[in-house]
Amino acid sequence: MFGSSGWLVSVGMLLTGLLASLVQANYPPPERLTGMNPCISKQTCHECIQTPHCAWCAAPKFPEKRCFLPNINTKIFATCPPEYTWNPDNDFSMLRHRNLTKGGYAAGSGGGSGGYGSIEGSYSNFSSSSSSSSHFHREGSSVSGSRRQEAVQMWPQEVNLKLRINEAYRMSFAYSQAEDYPVDLYYLMDLSKSMEDDKKRLSDLGQLLVESMSKITSNFRLGFGSFVDKVVMPYVNTVPKSLIEPCDGCAAPYGYRNIMRLSQDTSHFAGLVRNASVSGNLDAPEGGFDAIMQAIVCRNQIGWREKARRLLVFSTDAGFHYAGDGKLGGIVKPNDGLCHLDTKGTYTHSSLQDYPSISQINLKVKQNAINIIWAVTEEQINVYKRLTKHVEGSFAGKLSDDSSNVVELIREQYDAISSSVEMKDTASSAIRVKYFSRCLGTGPAVETSKCDGLKVGTKVDFIAEIEVTSCPANRSEWKQKFDIYPVGINETLTVNLEMLCDCECEREGHMYEEKSAECNGVGTLKCGVCECYDGFFGKRCECSPHQELTGFDKHFQSCRPDNTTLVDCSGRGTCACGQCECEERENPDEVISGHFCECDNFSCDRDQGVLCSDHGTCECGQCVCNAGWTGPSCNCRSSNDSCVAPGTTNGVLCSGHGDCICGECICHEEGNTRYSGKHCNKCPTCPSRCEELKPCVQCQMYNTGNYSDPEECARNCKEFVPEGVETVIVDVDNDEVPCFGTDEDDCKYNFVYYYNETNCLKVRAQNERECPPQVYMLGIVLGVIAAVVLVGLALLLLWKLLTTIHDRREFARFEKERMMAKWDTGENPIYKQATSTFKNPTYAGK
To answer: Which GO cellular component does the record give, naming just one (predicted)?
Structure first.
């Protein structure tokens, strides 16, 4: 019933099964086959060179393994002729590398002289056929052909890089902030009725804003725009009368209006702001996102310059509408992200398109290198602080109720923006880029993409580690172009990347032979191996589904990686005509693959039972981690950026009080001192800085304390400027530390301190101290003296009164007695008259 060849194969299968059962206990796991020599299982030249450090020998009828490690397999390396050895090296070259300049370019004048780096190189075109989806190109990144000297803040400007797969290449580049760099500031204001007092204050402070920014750069331009909301119910009252005057003294509602184009003639700013009319709407959120989108993408109408730091100040006291809210007004067409301003600067598609999404705003901000400053009131500050995490290069600041602190806020936020630099890139998902820098420190470079504490003219060196993680399936995407750029600066380092995904000998022409006799006429000889046509397989395309090998030795040899292996197909498949057919698992998602069935997608390391921690894919028994993750099970963050506190200039991990493990800080416990927080910068058991900060709070807020002298206060208190508030409320979520104090006047005062996103110290203190009633000693003394005198006088008067009354009473009684006194006739008692009369009592008148 069976042919001789079928009998041989059946016997071979039986023996294979017996051998597999005998050696199963001593057979190493499949992942160890490739772990000891990752090249051994690669069967084609492109598979070989896509494996790090592997080389391919394309010599005809080569007896050894064609894919090998040159440093280890020295015998193969020596045997293979050099002209047949394919071991491409990474190649780097600079196309444009103009010097970093110290001075900025102003219109009509040249840039500053001097700089860093090498002399300018020649420019060569880089041909790339990659599709638009394969890389992301930032708008406005092209270099002008003008020969005028402009500020150069990135070095180099364009490079070529040929890179093998999974072999990282470290490229050095530098950034330096130019002096007197141009600044474009566009003030976008909510002009709903509730912002009327803010508008008046801004018009009063317009000249002060110009003077403050002129101290930063001599090339400053200012613009102004306003917004309300879509003129559609339920955002605006559409009753005809309300469409004309929605509130007392209000103008008709509108979406967005560009009132003043960016201009160096800043004298008109205050007048235009003053004359701008407020309007009204119904709901609390405003249509600010519509205005932001138009202010960013309408570059010509707004007047954004190509080489300038672009600031958009967004001022409001309310929240914002975003994508999807337009459906409430029957607007379902998504925002197209294009410019729709008429000749008067009015947004024409306000009622036709939905609001932009946050991601759309972020995309346009990145493409146009815009820094947004959210200048919002205290009620909205937390909302916009969360928004900064989703809009690149944006900052949030608290605006006082009447915008009286707008100049200080803009200057403070500009200083925060200009004193730091953060590198980002537009690389596709197939490319992994890591950044390293020592920033302003002197120690070794650490993994970070952001440096703080920079000053004008300071040069910062970075290292970009570029790695191609996989070859795209589309061959046209093997050449890609991406940019490395500082956030908020319209300058780029363009990387023209060519992925070394295949060998020249696999292309038509060189060492390429169709229907080769070496392949039995049913295959193409490429790089020394056969690529069989459909329906054929085997080392020399000698097999087909209806034909089987007759050599028992060949049967084993073709299904084992080397002569030391005792089982076919890694023990996880059957050998048919010299080719492994891998087993199928019960779970269809679990796949065994590889020429020798040595690979699978389910035996990788797991974290808490999750394959590759769900942060990567399992390929051939090893986790291939997604960008930003590393470790055997992809459970660790590859970047240490999350362990460096924002604003740290020396790149110290975990504030020096912990260890960075898997991108998270594990804080130390030093005796009774315990550190906590995301960056181990909190210490509940440590002494607070209250006592240290009290003298500066006293002198800056109340002109009291040890530094009451203004010069001494300015000299010793440079770290912060306290913000005055009526009542100090502690924000626990913001890690604010409350402090209390009593000064020499026995007055009590409260303040809180905290560190913002850039690790800068911030202090809020109450405007007025709580003092006891003031005691006037002179008044008290004089009062006491007066009281004593008055009491004495009163007593004397009372005594005099009483004595007078008493004397008068006595005198009156004396007068009364004198008047009532009756005196007898005065006779001498010893005188006796000459006659005496006697009456006989018994005589009765008879």
So the answer is: focal adhesion
Specify the residue for token string 């169709």.
Answer: 514
Contact 612, 604 (CB under 8 A): yes
For the domain spanning 154-178+424-500, the CATH number is 2.60.40.1510
CATH fold match for the domains 515-612 and 689-766: no
pLDDT at 204: 83
Cβ–Cβ < 8 Å for 600, 611: no
Largest CA distance in the chain: 214
Cβ atoms 186, 313 nearer than 8 A: yes
HSE of 2 in the Cβ direction (CA atoms, 13 Å)?
A: 9
Give the phi and the psi of residue 285 in degrees, each rounded to 5: -65, 150
For the chain (846 residues), the mean pLDDT of every run of 10, in chain order, is 40 40 37 57 87 89 85 84 89 91 48 34 35 38 46 92 93 90 91 86 85 86 92 85 80 91 86 87 86 95 90 92 90 93 93 94 92 90 90 87 81 85 91 90 83 85 93 91 91 94 83 81 86 81 64 60 75 78 80 85 86 86 82 82 68 80 81 75 75 90 87 86 86 81 87 77 88 79 88 89 89 84 67 77 65
Which H or E run contains 347? none
DSSP 8-class letter at 379: T
Identity of the residue numbered 278: V
Check if the beta carbon of residue 79 is closer than 8 Å to that of residue 64: yes
Other Cβ atoms closer than 10 A to 742: 13
In the DSSP assignment, the letter for residue 818 is H
- pLDDT score for 684: 67
CATH topology of domain 515-612: Tie2 ligand-binding domain fold (2.170.300)
What strands, in cross-sheet order, belong to the sheet with 512-513? 512-513, 523-526, 529-532
Residue 796 structure tokens: 């004397």
Helix (H) or strand (E) holding 521: none
Residue recorded with tokens 């598609």: 349
What local confidence, expressed as pLDDT, does residue 189 receive?
92
How far, rounded to the nearest angstrom, does the alpha carbon of residue 370 sit from its chain's CA centroid? 14
The amino acid present at 362, given as its one-letter code, is N
Question: Residue 508: CB partners within 8 Å, gap ≥ 6?
Answer: none
Q: Where are the beta strands (DSSP E) in 642-788?
A: 658-661, 664-667, 669-670, 673-674, 723-725, 737-742, 748-755, 761-766
pLDDT of 11 reads 38
Beta bridge partners of 373: 313, 395
Tokens 């005691």 sit at which residue? 775
* Per-position b or e across 305-320, b if 16+ CB within 10 A of its CB: bebbbbbbbbbbbbbb
For residue 645, what pLDDT is reported? 73
Is the separation of the CB atoms in 695 and 703 below 8 Å? no
CATH fourth-level superfamily of 183-419 = von Willebrand factor, type A domain (3.40.50.410)
Which pLDDT belongs to residue 664? 82
Q: State the Cα–Cα distance between residues 618 and 600, nearest whole angstrom.
A: 8
Distance CA 123, CA 145 (A): 11
Tokens of 429: 């998902």
Give the start-to-end residue ranges of the domains of the chain.
45-87, 154-178+424-500, 183-419, 515-612, 641-674, 689-766
Q: What is d(CA 496, CA 466) in angstroms, rounded to the nearest whole number?
A: 12
Contacting residues for 731 by C-beta, under 8 A, at least 6 apart? 752, 754
Report strand pairing: 737-742 vs 748-755: antiparallel
**Model pTM?**
0.62
For residue 767, the tally of other CB atoms under 10 A from its CB is 13
**So what's the pLDDT on residue 728?**
87
Class of domain 689-766: few secondary structures
Among candidate residues 663, 641, 636, 661, the one with its CA nearest the CA of residue 652:
641
Nearest to 439, CA basis, from 277, 652, 584 = 652
